[in-house]
Amino acid sequence: MYLMSCTRPDTAYEVSKLSRYMSNLGADHWKGIIRILRYLIYTRDYGLYYTKYPFGVLHDGKLPYPGAISTLEKLATYGTKMVIISNSSRRASSTIEKLRSLGFDTSLFVGAITSGELTHEHLLRRDDPWFARLGRSCIHMTWNDRGAISLEGLGLQVVDNVEEAEFIIAHGTEALGLPSGAALPMKLEDLEKILEQCVAKKIPMVVANPDFVTVEARALRVMPGTLAATYEKLGGEVKWMGKPGEIIYKSAMVMVGVDAADCIAVGDSLHHDIKGANVAGISSAFITGGVHATELGLGKFGETADDSSVQALALKYEAYPTYVLPSFTW
Question: Which residues contact residue 201 at a Cβ distance below 8 angstroms, ignoring those fewer than 6 apart?
Fold first, then answer.
């Protein structure tokens, strides 16, 4: 088995055909997945990243996917170093706690890096020129049902009047943070109206979760990246934290202590996970049963995607996986 870095559509297509050939229907349906994962056995310093909070790979936000927990345990027995890379608005500790609550043994991971953690660190240190020029008063778009995200310790003043704001933080898509620390539930279209006011004032946005949608209990939920894309379309300036940016992958490699040549990223989003792996120069495994399941015409867990559909989707997002797998199962 060889790991290949795909930068051309035809190469990605051939690799996807190979993966599907190995993942044929019948008693040995999972043969392709097993062969790819067994590759990791022979390299004890191999870095394996699980991306996407990791909705669509390890769990759906409510329950672990079949075989995910046992697969992690098997990989750990061979010394595989594993890091969670997540476009979660929350701190890394929240991601680890989420996995623990779902029954995952979090001691199997070296750690976790989230886009929310990177955002917090940059707002706190302000040693980056872009962050150094930000003010202290902000419009805070956050969560409601999922739980509002605290800005405690950052020395920021949350305002609900655009005229008083110096920048925007997009943590969620369900509510507007209030000066009192509470969150006012708000529809997406109402948050977008606030963005129209913000762009008129020409204030920048920091988006702590670049994802557009995520899988939650097999349904899609709109994520902060959608607000950021809207703001850019309106003419606003956006600082995208997390995937597909290279910084989050570099942080993971430093944490694990490996180079790009010794890593593989496993994710279900072509735009974020796979494109991010391409940018970082590392191999990748695209899990088709996540956010792209509907686009690929998949109706049940573990169903194999059609080669031509995967190729077309890869071309659409300009993101080319090294491997294509129906699910993360050994």
Answer: 162, 163, 165
